[in-house]
Amino acid sequence: MIDYQPFWKTLKKSGESTYTLITRHRISSATVDKLRKNKPMNTTTLNDLCRILECTLEDVARYVPDGREKEG
User: Fold this and answer.
1) CA 47 – CA 10 distance, rounded (Å)
2) CA 12 to CA 23: how far, in whole Å?
3) pLDDT at 67 exceeding the cut of 90
4) How confident is the model at residue 8 (pLDDT cuts 50, 70, 90)?
5) CA-wise closest residue to 48 among 60, 30, 34, 33
6) pLDDT tens across 22-59, in order?
7) Alpha helices in 1-54 (DSSP H)
8) 3-class DSSP state for residue 61?
């Protein structure tokens, strides 16, 4: 499972807010909702978040095994 918990810590450190992401950076409120609910999103959006927050992908998302996934 992809978890966006690191995003919230990075957002807080950045001085940005969900409001500025939506109004200044044109990130949709649906994207913010996906981040809150750990829903899938495309890599273009993740790239935009990294660019806006000047961070790496690891500062936005992390992989957490959920026990249902099996190795090849």
Assistant:
1) 14
2) 17
3) no
4) very high
5) 60
6) 999 999 999 999 999 999 999 999 999 999 999 999 99
7) 5-14, 18-23, 29-36, 43-53
8) coil
